[in-house]
Design goal:
7 strands, Rossmann fold, alpha/beta, 8 helices, binds S-adenosylmethionine, 7-stranded mixed beta sheet
Length: 240
């Protein structure tokens, strides 16, 4: 959904060729313009809704102030889907990760506008969040919508959905917990289907790609893409 995330997605995959990456990241940090409204939301709502990164397991009951199912979202962009889903699934708590500050500000703004209480934001690399802050067997679900497709072959190593990362995600799911992915880039959809199908701890809830679950809203760019005949592929797998 490159169009949808002018501010949130890497504007150019060429930036990814810059040397001296210590570890391979699934994102490139870019300076982005934060609007006044986003700045205000960061200032006023940040203290309540931002969770600082710490290399220790997060107590989600204390964080959300209640015991409820917890879903981790990786790379929420501007947070449109996150905010809508959190309102639809109000009995679930959402731990939402994004590295791009304008996106964090945008989601905080929506949290304020709609009085959303079941989202907390981690402005940090979700790979590290998952590794350090999420207890094994603790998540009810993981949402990864339109992850950066990294079109060029030499950048494929940056794609999030790879066997090792999926193994780690699965270890954080409860038995019966689900992994919901969506992409509009068919070769990446195929890679997702291959990687998830090869994981013996997961079972596909559909024959192949899944119908879009009702809780995931169609973004306006997704709608436009669909009108132009472009595809979108959802995958929903459950931990046995
Ligand atoms: C193409 S955008 C999609 C955004 C949103 N999910 C949507 O559907 O509109 C991918 C987003 O993932 C974020 N991202 C990529 N890797 C990440 C990581 N390891 N941790 C947190 N955010 C990440 C990027 O900053 C970017 O905003």
């Amino acid at each position: 959904m490159t169009d949808d995330n002018q501010q949130a997605a890497p504007s150019s995959e060429n930036a990814a060729d810059a040397p001296h990456h210590r570890t391979i990241k699934s994102f490139v940090m870019r300076a982005g313009r934060t609007t006044e409204g986003q700045e205000r939301a960061l200032r006023e709502l940040g203290p309540r809704f931002l969770v600082p990164f710490r290399a220790e397991v997060l107590d989600t009951t204390a964080t959300f102030g209640r015991q409820a199912p917890v879903v981790l979202e990786i790379g929420f962009g501007m947070g449109d889907a996150t905010a809508q889903i959190a309102q639809t699934l109000s009995d679930t708590d959402f731990l939402a990760c994004e590295v791009h500050e304008p996106g964090v500000g945008a989601l905080l703004k929506k949290i304020g506008e709609h009085d959303i209480t079941n989202i907390r934001i981690l402005q940090h690399d979700a790979v590290e969040v998952m590794e350090h802050m999420i207890a094994e067997g603790s998540l009810d679900g993981v949402h990864i919508y339109f992850p950066d497709p990294w079109h060029k072959k030499r950048h494929h190593k940056r794609r999030l959905i790879q066997p090792t990362f999926v193994d780690q995600l699965v270890s954080r799911l409860k038995p019966g917990g689900y992994l919901h992915l969506a992409t509009d880039w068919e070769p990446y959809a195929q890679q997702m289907l291959e990687v998830l199908s090869a994981n013996t701890a997961l079972r596909n809830t559909a024959g192949s790609y899944a119908d879009k679950p009702a809780y995931r809203p169609l973004t306006k760019f997704e709608n436009r893409g669909l009108r132009l005949g472009h595809g979108v592929w959802d995958l929903v797998f459950r931990k046995a």
